[in-house]
Description:
Layout: E1 3-9, E2 18-21, E3 26-30, H1 37-47, E4 77-85, E5 106-114, E6 119-123, E7 126-128, H2 130-138, E8 149-150, H3 157-160, H4 163-173, H5 177-284, H6 286-327, H7 329-359, H8 362-388, H9 397-489, H10 494-497, H11 508-528, H12 533-598, E9 602-613, E10 640-651, H13 665-682, E11 687-691, H14 699-712, E12 717-721, H15 725-729, E13 733-739, E14 745-751, H16 752-759
Parallel strand pairs: 3-12, 3-13, 8-11, 11-12
Antiparallel strand pairs: 1-2, 1-4, 4-5, 5-6, 6-7, 9-10, 13-14
Helix pairs in contact: 5-9, 5-11, 5-12, 6-7, 6-9, 7-8, 12-13, 13-14
Amino acid sequence: MTLKSIELFGFKSFGKKSSLSFTNPITCVVGPNGSGKSNIVEAMRFVLGEQSMKSLRGKGGVDLIFKGSKMIASSNRAGVNITFDNSQKIFSFTNSGIGVSLDYDEVTIGREVFADGANKYSINGTEVRLKDVIDLLASVNIGSSGHHIISQGEADRVLNASNKDRRSMIEDALGLKIYQYRIKESERKLDKTIINMKEVTALRREIAPHLNFLKKQVEKVEKARAMREDLRSLYKDYFSSEYTYISNEGARISSKRQELDQKALVLDEKISELEKLKEGNVTESELSKIIKEKEFTLHEVRSKKDEISRSLGRIEGIIEGIEHQFAKVPEVTERIIKESEWKSLVEELEVKIDEAMRLEDLPLVIDILRNIKSKLGEFTHSAREASADMPALEDSAEYKEMQKAKEEILAQVSKSREEELSIINEINDLKEKERESESSLRDNERALYDVLRDKNEVVSAIHGLSFEEERLSAIKNAFEMELAEGGVLIGREVVDFARIKVEGEIIRSTQEDMRRKIERIKIKLEDSGSGNASDIMKEYDDTAERDVFLGRELEDLNKSIDSLRVLIQELKETLDKEFKGGVEKINKQFQDFFALMFGGGSAFLSITMEHKKVRKSDEKVTEEDEGDEESEDEEDGNDLGFERGIEINVTLPQKKVKDLHMLSGGERSLTSIALLFAVSQVNPPPFLVLDETDAALDEANSRKYGNMLENLSKYSQLIVVTHNRETMSRAQVLYGVTMSAEGASKLLSIRLEDATSYAK
């Protein structure tokens, strides 16, 4: 893998897009001070994920954006793209879920910064996180410590660093940073897992009371379910029997009603016929009306006859009177007395008798009697005198007239008698017919009475049947209501129960007993409050499932903690092993480079152990010690741990100086260069950037420095920023950076081979 190119646009002094290609082992970047050549090194730091603005010589992201000049407008963003050769497919991700394909011959990493300070990272044009960029670079031994980029004035940074920081640089240079990254990632996962485990424990503790409550509710629901099963069995027997009873009773009542309706229809026809006969009889009974008319006529005839008879009687009386008047004077006298004077005489005598009786005077009574006798004698005498003066009977015109009238009346009487006899005979004939009609009518009425009696019996039976129908309707309504309620309590399967017919007689008392049992169970179900049983069961199942899930998750988290701790331990052991082996290799190369630079002496790295305070690891939380919350997340400052460091030990030839602080500036530069080259020899990085690291070297040491560059270029691609001619002579390509008249950095390039040919 080699660095192929780097592209800058709007970055610091590079207002226009500028590109550098690295096709040779050693490439030098030269230029006067202030031309912007160090900005190329900072651009490489920037695109590789540097987060320290101090390392980029700025205070914020806006300081990295080209500010503009008189001839070129300012930029609103700054960006750098760096391209690597990936023909051997050595780039990889530790996290396979990033979603960026690396199956390309080139891998381009890009970074942009905007005026608001926001950063955007991309890999092959796909936007990613900074973490993904670091993960990708770590796979090719390019770490974040910057050991592969040595900027101006930082050549002896490795010497000035603390033992801990120096260890981090060495690990990064040895390609062990990936282990550190994995250890930290595992520790973060461990901490997160412990936090998750605490949260899961808290959740289980939180739902435990509710789960217990739901468990009791479920027990009630189970009891209610058992009661529902009993109710289902009772409903099956009750509904099937009730349905059979209603069906049978309905069929029986329907059949009985049809029978009674048919019988009533027949009786109605008979009644209609008898009533028609009665109407006929009523027509025949008009004879009685005729009889009455005849009797009325007879009555009139008799009245007329009686009147004639009376007239005859009067005539005969007159005649007799005339005859008596002429034949019997005494009788006439007596009649006259009776008719004319008798009344006044009697009244007079009554008065006198009453007076005598009142007075009780016997002589007066005798006198009155004598007076009466005298009066009677006088009356008789006067009557005889009147009769003697009367004419003869045959000569009386009145007598003759009366006789004639009598004869006429007798003729009328005879005629009336004949008419009377005729009417009587007619009446007798009509009465005989009437008697015959009445006999037939009585027979008809008797038959009609019998039919009406039967009809009343049928109507009464129909009324009784109506009561049975009402009773059956009430039973049916109660059945339907119970069926609907059963559907709510048990389910729609009760409808199937109501379609089952049973054999045998249905006893109502047994049905009532079952009904009472059903009511008792329904009351118990209502008291149990299991109306929302499905919701309770669902909530219990969900809560229990969640509790089981949390339990499994807690178990998985415990296993994950164990596996993470094992992984961390294995990574630490591997890191320790690789680190120690790498330090041994570095010491060998460090000694060679140091002796070469100083003409002798010794130099080596030693591993130190330093005390530190560490956070007490959280113990595995189990169900037995879930309540020990007070011990969670506490830091025990008394627990001591150890961490490794790297100490540099040097001995200059012909000097007893061993302390790094006692070295001169040149000696420190040579020592740091020897160490950096030694590290690069042990685990060569893909490329190495050296920014004026040879500035403090004299001519002799510059040649040694050049020799080491040529040797190191066999393992790593070198980009050297320098003013040293000796160093320039070792490069194949020179990039010159100058500040153009436009006010922006400008790049010029030349190949030394071409320059040599041109010079010749």
